[in-house]
Amino acid sequence: MFLTYVGESGITGATATDPSQPHQVYTGLFVHESQSISMNGEFSALCRRHFGAPLGEEGAPTEIRPVDVFQGLGHFASWPTLKRNELIQDCLGIMVRRETPVITSYINKQEFTEAKAAGGNSYLEMWETPTGPLVNKFFFALTMFLDELNMSAVSGDQVMDGSLPIANHALVVAQNGASMKPQFMSEFLRSDEGIDAAGLIDDICFVQPEHSVGSQLSNLVAYFVRRWLQNPKQPHPYFDGLRDNKVIQVIYPVTI
Known about the structure:
By secondary structure, the chain is an alpha/beta fold.
């Protein structure tokens, strides 16, 4: 089974037209259950190396927030750029070494707002905020990835016999207090897109981000994907490194 940690970036509450964050992004970090313990151990070791203590203890932040470490805010206000870059690289290295796959979906919030105001789009009429269609696309992307994994393990004889066993399942792990809500999964599974989502466990596990290594790493990926979307022609070494090393695998836009 895979634990699929949801990362978020560009969530601006009731404001859907923030010019500094035009995109809302979800990432799904696929961590096989056999890798979770070693990943947690490696993350704990790098925190001790950089902070001298585990997260939450004296001298260390409660969690690694992407905007703080990248822009030098909060706990990292006194850290020089090189030191912050080394921490980011060590965090991303955990995923790169394992080629941990990340599935991404995003929506342009301004396009959503303008289309809603114009009317005549029956698909958008059911959503009050950009989060609705984004969640739907995100779960669809997870389902497609699981389908590919399961099909890769099916033999030719099984295909001919119509026997398609589900070898891989995914449990979505979301963050308490973030935009993901329990009802989103049931709404998706009742939709046309979710009716065949047999590999997706029909519940969401919610955790505090400070207690979830996978959530913090997925948030980092979401942050760098959003920065790339905002200025794709500019250099983005962290995004490029994740994409070139088979971490960022698929990016699904919400088409409006």
